[in-house]
């Protein structure tokens, strides 16, 4: 399994700095934002930034890379919000292609129930943006407030007959009512049966501050939330051994050390010197 954190591209080194952080922490995959996730403003790349990142990525054995799209994107939107969503997502896909990143993850957004079907059709429209290059992955949501993609069946309908895939977030799934704390293998069975694991190349491995079926999207460090050891039973299942696991956990030097130690113990990976 390849694993890592969501790392920052801020600072003087930008994208290359993200690859440097991966090397320093001994990560085998990373996730980044290509721009601010809470703004429509695009982020131009600096001279040599793309080349520097790609060179470091190659030196690290390829370093699978995921770009997380803006939180503002809404596949169930209308009018100007829809147009902005398409423009922003197209930018993320173009950046991913330039960087050699394999995947772009996007939250499906929200809609009134009568618009949910339109959201599904819109997802199919967007699928063509990722036909040549990175694969576009829809992320499951914690549910509530009209959020699309809060069940496996809803995700199945969104990606049906498209090249779209799914990024499965454990915190979101738990908050939506999937019992990862009690029956992690059953959740994985449901994921395999409903979507097919070949459609799920990336897992967001996060514990949950919110309670089971609370629809509260608050990530916690491994073993520091309500899911607890259920995450070990889930992520160590052999069916996920070739997936990419990205931790979107709270970050500090101490928190990083804790989460890496726990995950490496679960995966029986020796901590790099």
From TrEMBL:
<dbReference type="Pfam" id="PF01261">
    <property type="entry name" value="AP_endonuc_2"/>
</dbReference>
<keyword id="KW-0234">DNA repair</keyword>
<keyword id="KW-0255">Endonuclease</keyword>
<keyword id="KW-0378">Hydrolase</keyword>
<dbReference type="GO" id="GO:0003906">
    <property type="term" value="F:DNA-(apurinic or apyrimidinic site) endonuclease activity"/>
</dbReference>
<dbReference type="GO" id="GO:0008081">
    <property type="term" value="F:phosphoric diester hydrolase activity"/>
</dbReference>
<dbReference type="InterPro" id="IPR013022">
    <property type="entry name" value="Xyl_isomerase-like_TIM-brl"/>
</dbReference>
<keyword id="KW-0479">Metal-binding</keyword>
<dbReference type="GO" id="GO:0006284">
    <property type="term" value="P:base-excision repair"/>
</dbReference>
<keyword id="KW-0540">Nuclease</keyword>
<protein>
    <submittedName>
        <fullName>Putative endonuclease 4</fullName>
        <ecNumber>3.1.21.2</ecNumber>
    </submittedName>
</protein>
<feature type="domain" description="Xylose isomerase-like TIM barrel">
    <location>
        <begin position="20"/>
        <end position="265"/>
    </location>
</feature>
<dbReference type="GO" id="GO:0008270">
    <property type="term" value="F:zinc ion binding"/>
</dbReference>
<dbReference type="InterPro" id="IPR001719">
    <property type="entry name" value="AP_endonuc_2"/>
</dbReference>
<keyword id="KW-0227">DNA damage</keyword>
<dbReference type="InterPro" id="IPR018246">
    <property type="entry name" value="AP_endonuc_F2_Zn_BS"/>
</dbReference>
<comment type="similarity">
    <text>Belongs to the AP endonuclease 2 family.</text>
</comment>
<dbReference type="GO" id="GO:0003677">
    <property type="term" value="F:DNA binding"/>
</dbReference>
<keyword id="KW-0862">Zinc</keyword>
<dbReference type="InterPro" id="IPR036237">
    <property type="entry name" value="Xyl_isomerase-like_sf"/>
</dbReference>
<dbReference type="GO" id="GO:0008833">
    <property type="term" value="F:deoxyribonuclease IV (phage-T4-induced) activity"/>
</dbReference>
